[in-house]
Amino acid sequence: MTTIFLIGFMGAGKTTVGKLLAHSTQKRHLDLDVEIEKKVGQPISQIFSEQGELSFRKIEHESLKKSMDQNAIVSTGGGIVLSASNRALLQEFSSEVIYLKTDPTVFIERLKRDTKNVRPLVTDKSVEEISAIYLPREVLYESCANFTVNTSLYSPKEVVREILAYLNKKEQML
Ligand SMILES: Nc1ncnc2c1ncn2[C@@H]1O[C@H](COP(=O)(O)OP(=O)(O)O)[C@@H](O)[C@H]1O
Ligand SMILES: O=C(O)C1=C[C@@H](OP(=O)(O)O)[C@@H](O)[C@H](O)C1
Ligand SMILES: [Mg+2]
């Protein structure tokens, strides 16, 4: 039973790739943002504006804990690595942590176009401000990951293909 976690910055494609990967592996797909919205009964943007980021992070931590033993494909939110206890959960549990690495110019462009999903941390922010959120996170994504795919030049399907190749190779080595 392996739970596969997708980590990476906003716009890396964790939600999109998670759905496709779940389909290919016939595993259940869990998106922590969706789980949080269901639990609270409010969209992420409203949780941030009414309860604040700290409250969101606490619910996010509980949702991560709940997802650990689900044998699922888990799309995390980009801020999951900020908490040391979340990083410990990701690293200690026998799971795969896959980092969808994306160049800032690419995720900034994707975020600009993705008007359907309101991400409170990037709304109305300049390129410099978004980069300042990303930079300290980069090392945290890298420290948690078992495998990294640079998604900048790949379509979501190609990212899934890379992940499946990695998982198959690993299985053959066991
Ligand atoms: N590999 C990709 N190439 C081009 N666009 C992508 C890719 N992955 C995701 N996108 C697009 O970028 C936006 C953000 O994707 P999403 O899956 O929500 O990212 P995340 O969950 O990491 O924030 C969406 O509009 C999605 O269609
Ligand atoms: O990076 C972050 O701090 C966040 C990322 C979002 O998820 P995505 O990475 O799926 O956009 C969502 O959890 C929230 O807006 C905060
Ligand atoms: Mg997402």
Automatic annotation (TrEMBL):
Any GO MF annotation of the entry: magnesium ion binding
Binding site residues for substrate: 33, 57, 78, 137
SUPFAM superfamilies: P-loop containing nucleoside triphosphate hydrolases
Involved pathway(s): Metabolic intermediate biosynthesis; chorismate biosynthesis; chorismate from D-erythrose 4-phosphate and phosphoenolpyruvate: step 5/7
Documented EC number(s): 2.7.1.71
Binding note for cofactor: Binds 1 Mg(2+) ion per subunit.
Biological processes per GO annotation: amino acid biosynthetic process; aromatic amino acid family biosynthetic process; chorismate biosynthetic process
Binding site for ATP: 11-16, 119
Compartmental location: Cytoplasm
Gene3D superfamilies: P-loop containing nucleotide triphosphate hydrolases
Matches recorded under InterPro entries: P-loop_NTPase, Shikimate/glucono_kinase, Shikimate_kinase/TSH1, Shikimate_kinase_CS
Entry GO terms, CC: cytosol
Keyword Plastid attached: no
Binding site for Mg(2+): 15
PROSITE patterns to which the protein is assigned, alphabetical: SHIKIMATE_KINASE
Cofactor: Mg(2+)
CDD domains on file: SK
Key words of the record: Amino-acid biosynthesis, Aromatic amino acid biosynthesis, ATP-binding, Cytoplasm, Kinase, Magnesium, Metal-binding, Nucleotide-binding, Transferase
Catalysed reactions, as listed in the record: shikimate + ATP = 3-phosphoshikimate + ADP + H(+)
Protein function: Catalyzes the specific phosphorylation of the 3-hydroxyl group of shikimic acid using ATP as a cosubstrate.
Assembly and oligomerization: Monomer.
Family to which this protein belongs: Belongs to the shikimate kinase family.
Record-given protein name: Shikimate kinase
Gene name of this polypeptide: aroK
